[in-house]
Write a structure and sequence with these properties.
mainly alpha; Arc Repressor Mutant, subunit A
């Protein structure tokens, strides 16, 4: 049995990948990587309502990717990159897995080429 050696809970990884599956949310995260901003600022490039943007932010919050602070009527959002690191670790395992498999396939292919020569 393969051990993924990733400490993230499966539910957390599921939430991260679900949040990242939406292009609007990925762009929101990209914007938040530049620094904190309000939900209104996140909504502006998409021409969506506060309520629509808030739903996207909620999905990002559920995944732990965003922390929201409410100050009066302003909802300030801040990126939390830790869950992205967990997802990266999970993906890195499969990158190594496929690199090993493709390396073995390449070796086999080269052996067969030599045999044909």
């Amino acid at each position: 049995m393969v051990n993924l050696m990733v400490d993230a809970a499966p539910e957390r990884l599921d939430a991260v990948f679900q949040a990242l599956s939406d292009p609007t949310r990925r762009l929101m995260l990209q914007r938040l990587s530049e620094g904190p901003c309000s939900i209104t600022e996140l909504a502006t490039p998409f021409r969506m309502s506060f309520a629509g943007a808030s739903k996207h932010v909620k999905a990002l919050e559920t995944a732990g990717l965003v922390q929201r602070t409410v100050r009066g009527r302003t909802h300030l959002c801040r990126l939390n990159p830790e869950p992205l690191a967990d997802a990266h670790d999970w993906l890195r395992f499969y990158k190594r897995f496929w690199n090993q498999r493709l390396g073995a396939f390449e070796s086999l292919f080269r052996e067969q080429e030599v045999d044909r020569s």
